[in-house]
Amino acid sequence: MKMKLSSLHHGSTARVSLPGFIIFFINLPIHNLESAQFTVIGPDQPVTAIVGEDIVLPCHLSPPMSAENMEVRWSRFDYSSFVHRYRDGKDQTEYQLPEYSGRTEFLKDGIRNGSVALRLHNIRPTDEGRYTCYFESTSFYKDALLELKVAALGAAPLISVEGYQDGGIRVVCRSAGWYPEPEVCWRGLTGQHVPLLSERKFQGANGLFETETCIIITETSNQNISCSIRSTLLKQEKESRIYVAELFFPTKSPWIAILCTILVIQFFVIGLLIYLLKTKEKKVAESRWRDCLIEAEGVTLDPDTANPNLILSKDRKTVRLGDTDQKLLANHKGFSYSPCVLACEGFTSGTHYWGVEVGSKGGWAVGVARESVTTKEGAVSLKPEEGIWAIERQWWGEFWALTSPMTRLTVSRKPEKIRVSLDYKEGLVEFFDADNVKPFYAFRSASFAGEKIFPFFRVGGAGTQLSLCP
User: Fold this and answer.
1) Of 14, 143, 376, 400, which has the maximum CB count within 10 A?
2) pLDDT mean over 444-448
3) 366 near 358, Cβ under 8 Å?
4) Which H or E run includes 22?
5) Residues 80, 310: contact at Cβ < 8 Å?
6) Cis? peptide before 63, omega within 30° of 0
7) Is the per-residue pLDDT at 225 higher than 80?
């Protein structure tokens, strides 16, 4: 059966089959749905992952609609740093962050309803942070933030007796493999807290924390004690217990007084040596700081290396993120995919200093880079292996040293002016808060490979502005 329909063009008529007519009107709302506006929804609470295991980061569209023909990507730090990207109906990993290579899996069973997820394999402590889930259709785009918390439950505490001290017995509790930094507590038989003599926590190369705490127990104190270590994120703890019999406690002897006197003298000598060493270090740091203030380089920004999305001031002392600069894009030889720029001045020897005003908000990275980084294709990976030694502030306020893996920095306050020091011969790159004489981070034994080294800057997002200090 056939019917006549009035054509939409020039008033002519066309003969259309009934099945074709029905298919046309079925496809029409689907097309309109894919081009409609939508909202991206992710988990409303942080997702917790265990080190070494897998985790799924879900997000979906509201209202439900097909995302088969959309671009979907997860990113960190900025939109050019992909964790995973799905586009043109397939996974695309050519610009994926190296630390996620081979560790991501795009789950698309529900993609026709706009429901997708990203599976991260073999979770690491460095995976912790915020992720952006981004959808883009032919006429609209939207994203949502997801927060990933990482945790690791370490080994059961190992308690050891390590000799006599202060009229009692020194007992040490050790454990490793925890993330984030755990809480350690000693308790007596009735549950009362036992005061610590010392506590030490440090982070290993794998990003996990190790703990070592020490107490002194005496014959008159509780000899049945336990050491418990608690994960503040998982709300779980592991405990070990020890009992020290009375016969192991030292008896009173005149030699104890002599030994105590010797120990006091030793502690005094050691303290004096430490004081002299710290005084010497402070003088060296103050000297270096005076040099930094007096002999600062007159650094300017090089427009030939600037990413086309960066806007430089006329005096080439300030840079911010803006619309694409068509003049730079027309004959561009610098950073193509990352919002970075180098200074005009490069160094192959000597010691050099310069200052950067970074402000109190936004995301940025400053440091030094080899001249060859601008010739590399694709997104620039900010790490020493790629010829960049830098620190960064992420846009939510955390400070990191861009090592491999990254090192989280603990600063007493958020610096708004950074002083960068470069010693080419020693391979030393140091970063100072403008009001402190000691660096808050330093790269040592950096391999410059004989290349010219330039001051390096990255603008992490809108509203961020970096200015070179006079």
Assistant:
1) 400
2) 89
3) yes
4) helix 18-34
5) no
6) yes
7) yes
Q: Cβ distance 119 to 94 under 8 Å? A: no
Instruction: Provide DSSP, 179-236.
Output: BSPPEEEEE-TTSPBPPPSEEEEEE-TTS-EEEEEEEEE-TTS--EEEEEEEETTTTE
- Classify residue 334 by burial, with Cβ atoms within 10 Å: 0-12, 13-18, 19+: buried
The count of other CB atoms within 10 Å of the CB of residue 76 is 18
CA distance 157 to 152: 15
pLDDT at 410: 87
- In single-letter form, the type of residue at position 444 comes to R
Rounded to an integer, the average pLDDT of 50-64 is: 95
Query: Please, which residues have CB within 8 angstroms of residue 40's CB and are 6 or more apart in sequence?
Result: 59, 60, 61, 62, 133, 134, 135, 142, 143, 144
CA distance 148 to 127: 8
Predicted confidence (pLDDT) at residue 77 exceeds the cutoff of 90: no
User: What whole-number distance in Å separates Cα of residue 433 and Cα of residue 285?
Assistant: 13
Q: Which two tokens stand for residue 34?
A: 């894919």
387-405 burial code (b ≥16 CB/10 A, e <16): bbbbbbbbbeeebbbbeeb
> Are 321 and 364 in contact, with CB atoms under 8 Å apart?
no
pLDDT tens across 271-323, in order? 888 888 877 766 765 665 566 556 788 899 999 899 888 999 999 999 998 87
Indicate whether 24 pLDDT > 80. no
Q: Could you give the 3-state DSSP secondary structure of residue 318?
A: strand
Q: What residues pair up with 239 in beta bridges, in sequence order?
A: 228
Query: Which helix (H) or strand (E) segment is 34 a member of?
Result: helix 18-34
Angle at 111 between CA 26 and CA 67, to 5 degrees: 65
- Look at residue 90 and give its three-state secondary structure: strand
Token pair recorded at residue 252:
């009173």
Q: What is the pTM of this model?
A: 0.45
Q: Which of 462, 169, 204, 165 is nearest to 339 (CA)?
A: 462
Q: What are phi and psi of 355, to 5 degrees?
A: -120, 150
What pLDDT does 246 receive? Answer: 65
**Predicted local confidence at residue 25, as pLDDT:** 45
Kindly provide the residue ranges of all beta strands, DSSP E only, lying in 29-68, ordered along the sequence: 39-41, 47-50, 55-62
DSSP secondary structure, 330-382, as one string: HT--S-SSS-EEEBS--BSSSEEEEEEE--SSS-EEEEEEEGGGGGS-SSPP-
C-alpha dist (Å) from residue 337 to 303, 306, 389: 15, 11, 19
Residues 461-469 have a mean pLDDT of 84
Total residue length of the chain = 470
Residue 341, strand partner residues: 457
